[in-house]
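Progress narrative, work stream C.
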Amino acid sequence: MSVRDIPVNTLAGQPSSLGDLGARTLLIVNVASKCGLTPQYAGLEELHKRFADQGFAVAGFPCNQFGEQEPGSAEEIAEFCSATYGVSFPMFEKIDVNGPQQHPIYAELTATADANGEAGDIQWNFEKFLVGPDGSVIARFRPMTAPDAPELVEAIEASLPR
């Protein structure tokens, strides 16, 4: 099963899946509103807009597992993202990315190793996974990798649908 096929709810609570976004390259990110890395929202939105016409989308999954930095309700998260960063990319329900309640999408994603060959648990907010149009997980970028990092942008460009 591809991560595209796993059921998930939108931030508004509607049943969905990543497959509903079409045959796009996706950058899946666990996000939080009260983190030192929260300004990455701006860079993620920039990436989303820059490559949207080429078959790309960012997909955000709020998570409150790291320092309780995403305590808000779905409505509060949506308002924060819209008002503060103008987020237009798809946002999904708040989930657990590690542990016994880990969402099945993250069970699949965390099997992917990063550039150092390390797979396993998410380290912190804003860990990024690049997923190809076919649903294969192409690359994993740790939280400190900025959205405009050359290695991330190059990986996106190389994986866009042809």
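Work stream C, second folded protein:
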Amino acid sequence: MFILKFRPAAGNRSLQFKMPVSYTYLESPIGTLLLAADANGLQEILFSTYGRPARPDPAWQEDAPALAEVVRQLKAYFAGEQENFDLSLAPQGTPFQQKVWSELQKIPYGETTSYGELARRIGNPNASRAVGLANGSNPIPIVIPCHRVIGSNGKLTGYGGGLPIKEKLLALEKRQLQLL
């Protein structure tokens, strides 16, 4: 489920209000994940980089209990016990990105699609490159399953967490690999 945030025009900063963001870390089979959410829902999942956990924004506050349900569902996913997530999501992006991210959530567990097919599904068949950019900007990987998008030739293409993690997630979903 998506919860979209109101974003005032860039020149109208007086209307902007930032809700407090809570974060926690999750030690997962694909590395340490940084989870961040506000009262509207999950905003980000950040992968470790070069073996180092992502750093939270200095304005965020560590609050593991606020993200307990996200942690529970991700652990169940990694254990192969959960195929779909039931979380409030609040990814921030352009209307086009939101449209792509919404469509990503319709890709069934264990299946893949191409960037071109995703572009057709959102009604813009010539936008496969823009879809690829939106896919790469997905702030909530795994939950919004951008790892399920592959090249039109069937080969794996880029992934924010790296291709080895994308391979692991796809193998988990095809029941070819146990992560926990």
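The CA atoms of residues 103 and 121 lie 8 Å apart. No further action is required on this item.
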